[in-house]
Amino acid sequence: MKRTIFVLSLTVLFFLLAAGCGTGGELTVSDAWARPAAAGGNSAVYFVIENSGAEDALLGASVAVADSAEMHRSVMDEGVMRMEMQPSVAVPGGGRVAFEPGGLHIMLIGLKEDLNPGDSLEVTLTFEKAGEITLQVPVEER
User: How many domains does the chain fold into?
Assistant: First the structure.
């Protein structure tokens, strides 16, 4: 009986940890959220990648709720904020990369449905070495 409870407890703990963040071996993705937006418009997804291993690179993202998902970096150019598409984003070994407002983000282009606060969407990140990490991303107003 004690062994059954122990195994069940470990299983529950595993699923609770997995629901909290995405992992890809030595990469951990946390604090993911997306901006609310109306169908037909655009939104953005933000998160933090922490790497306890060797250097890796984020190659792209995919979602079902938009026509496309592109990696962008916001930059100030002669007093005007603009976005530059990023073909990949380096994730240094032992380092951290933040996708945040005013910087790196995943741009969701051509939303197929409304994204309302309280909703969530599935986002799959593709890394050069770690492969795919799929996240459940809450829609929040921040």
Answer: 1
Backbone dihedral angles phi then psi of residue 109, each to the nearest 5 degrees? -110, 130
Residue 31 included in any domain? yes
- pTM for this model (two decimals): 0.81
CA distances from 103 to 27, 47, 57, 142 (A): 20, 11, 17, 15
Q: What is the pLDDT at residue 10?
A: 39
Residue 6 within a domain: no
Handedness of CA 92, 30, 118, 133 (dihedral sign): positive
Q: Are 131 and 57 in contact (CB under 8 A)?
A: no
Phi-psi domain of 51 (left: phi exceeds 0; alpha: psi -120 through 50; beta: other) = beta
What's the maximum distance between 2 C-alpha atoms anywhere in the chain? 69
Q: Are 135 and 127 in contact (CB under 8 A)?
A: no
Is 40 a member of any domain?
yes
